[in-house]
Amino acid sequence: MNDIFNKECRQSLSHMLSAKLEEEKLSQKKESEKRNVTVQPDDPTSFMQLTAKNEMNCKEDQFQLSLLAAMGNTQRKEAADPLASKLNKVTQLTGFSDPVYAEAYVHVNQYDIVLDVLVVNQTSDTLQNCTLELATLGDLKLVEKPSPLTLAPHDFANIKANVKVASTENGIIFGNIVYDVSGAASDRNCVVLSDIHIDIMDYIQPATCTDAEFRQMWAEFEWENKVTVNTNMIDLNDYLQHILKSTNMKCLTPEKALSGYCGFMAANLYAHSIFGEDALANVSIEKPIHQGPDAAVTGHIRIRAKSQGMALSLGDKINLSQKKTSI
């Protein structure tokens, strides 16, 4: 007993303090590297509202890009990252057999969402007063109603719509397309559009905080969502990394505290949204040893946030990611 309390506990404490010191030094180094990247006083400021329509998806400095192209140092981000392609952000709104075919390119900016809707007239009639009617569910707000237009037979047009985002929660955009057929005496025709789901991950960024700040926010936040672990993964560390990747959160527990294998794991996660909202999560998972080495991970994930929408949205995201791993 004397060796346990006088030697081994002292060694464990020294290891924990040294690991915490190394983590603080690493975080300070990262902060100093971030502070070195500053904006010079004579750097140009680009306004997204003043850029051309074909440059809506480009946030880089056009002068810098043209200078790099002239020097032969063109960077091809689209080729390096195929997920950044526009085609992966296109949502089909109607079917191919509908009289009006529509699909939308969803471009998520920092505080608003731009919908570039392609409308195709697949009939041999002229469609008059073709109007895109949109409605939102969640903390989304439609800025302005798109103006009606006239489509010739087998013609197409692009309609742009702006949606403002006010908080971090999952939102749904739904609506329909109404039109009149030229020369017909019937009522207005309506084509119902498929729902567009806005992902919460576009607004959540991994962040860091101290243990005291985490405990203070954990006590202050009043909304909690408890998610039961339901997966077929058998490794605790792999499941934790999967949760970090799917929720875009950062693990505050030191790496040395998570190393090794003891049958259970507890970790604290933290994330910060662009709207100034914080999200906390406590992962408490274990592997039942009595069920054999191939037993699945079990446990709970407790999520706390200041708003109900953020806590529920993160819980839905975790449940959806668990379903994908179980397939």
Q: Profile the largest sheet.
A: 6 strands, antiparallel
CATH architecture of the largest domain: 2-Layer Sandwich
Question: What sort of overall outline do the alpha carbons produce when their principal axes are compared?
Answer: elongated
* Count of β-strands: 16
Order of SSEs, N→C? HHHEEEEEEEEEEEHEHEHEEEH
Annotation field: number of helices: 7
N- to C-terminal separation? 49 Å
Q: What is the average of the pLDDT values?
A: 80
CATH superfamily placement of the largest domain: TATA-Binding Protein
- Give the class-level CATH name of the largest domain: Alpha Beta
Q: Structural class of the helices, strands and pairings?
A: alpha+beta
**CATH fold call of the largest domain:** TATA-Binding Protein
* Low-pLDDT runs: 56-60, 71-83
Overall tally of domains: 2
Q: What is the alpha-carbon Rg in Å?
A: 26 Å
Portion in strands: 25-35%
State the helical fraction: 25-40%
Subcellular location: Cytoplasmic vesicle, COPI-coated vesicle membrane; Golgi apparatus membrane
GO cellular component, one term: COPI vesicle coat
InterPro entries: Coatomer_bsu_C (IPR011710), COPB1 (IPR016460), COPB1_appendage_platform_dom (IPR029446)
GO molecular function, one term: structural molecule activity
Describe the structure.
With 327 residues, the protein is α+β, with helices and mostly antiparallel strands. The protein folds into two domains: 87-198, Immunoglobulin-like (Sandwich); 203-326, 2-Layer Sandwich (TATA-Binding Protein), CATH 3.30.310.10. 29% of the residues lie in helices and 32% in strands. It has helices at 2-36, 62-71, 77-80, 211-220, 236-247, 255-258, 308-326; strands at residues 90-92, 100-108, 112-121, 127-137, 140-142, 149-151, 156-165, 171-181, 189-192, 196-198, 204-206, 223-228, 250-251, 264-273, 278-286, 298-305. The strands form three sheets. Strands 11, 12, 13, 14, 15 and 16 form a six-stranded antiparallel sheet that branches. Helix 5 crosses helix 7.
